[in-house]
Write a structure and sequence with these properties.
- The structure is a single chain.
- The protein has four helices and no strands.
- The protein is mainly α.
- The chain folds into two domains: 61 residues, Arc Repressor Mutant, subunit A (Orthogonal Bundle); 37 residues.
- The longest helix has 30 residues.
- It is elongated, with a radius of gyration of 24 Å.
Amino acid sequence: MSKNGTRRNFDRAFKVEAVRLITEEKRKVAEVARELDIDANLLHRWKRELSEDDNGAFPGKGHQSPEQEELRRLRRELADVKEERDILKKAISVFSRRPK
C-alpha cells in the first residue's frame, strides 16, 4: 500500500521494466525501488517471479495459469457434485418414509 493507504496496481510492462533495470543495467535494487517509489522487497519478488516463469509471471486479474484454471474448475465441479448428492440424500429420506 502507498503512504495514503490505497493499494497501487502495476501492469506487467511496468514490472518487467523494473526487473530489467536491476538485471540488465546492473542497478541496485534499493536504488531502482527508491526511483520507482516501490518497496525493495516487492521488486525482489517481481524478479523471482519473472525468473521462475517468464511467460506466466504477472498474469493480471482474471488470468490464471492452466493449472490454476483447472484447479478452479475441479473445485467448482466438486461443489456441484456435493450439492447434487445432498439433494438426492434428502429426496431418498423423504420418499423412504412410511406413511402413518
